[in-house]
Write a structure and sequence with these properties.
Blueprint (H helix, E strand, L loop, with lengths): L3 E3 L5 E3 L5 H26 L3 H27 L1 H16 L1
Antiparallel strand pairs: 1-2
């Protein structure tokens, strides 16, 4: 019975054969390792840009909510009176 090693391109290599297929497997594995290393270095050098966009969206939503609360507070009569008294006191000094 022969053991088969399946590669990503669908080619099967007989492990009982001592000829060129095992040497070819070594080259392919080396190439795959080099490609994986290159991909990892690329991902480290260029962080994902989508994450920054999502963070900006969260900040904008939070700022909009804060602005809405602030407007609602400033429209109330108690806050208007408080701010008017503060300004009058500051100008009278």
């Amino acid at each position: 019975m022969h053991n088969m090693i399946s590669l990503d391109d669908g080619i099967g290599i007989d492990t009982m054969d001592t000829g060129w297929p095992l040497q070819d497997l070594g080259r392919r594995m080396t190439r795959a390792g080099v490609m994986l290393d290159a991909r990892m270095r690329t991902l480290k050098a260029q962080p994902e840009e989508g994450a920054a966009t999502a963070e900006y969206a969260v900040v904008l939503v939070a700022a909009t909510g804060f602005a809405a609360v602030l407007v609602a507070l400033l429209k109330s009569d108690a806050i208007k009176t408080l701010l008017t008294n503060i300004v009058k006191k500051a100008l009278s000094v």
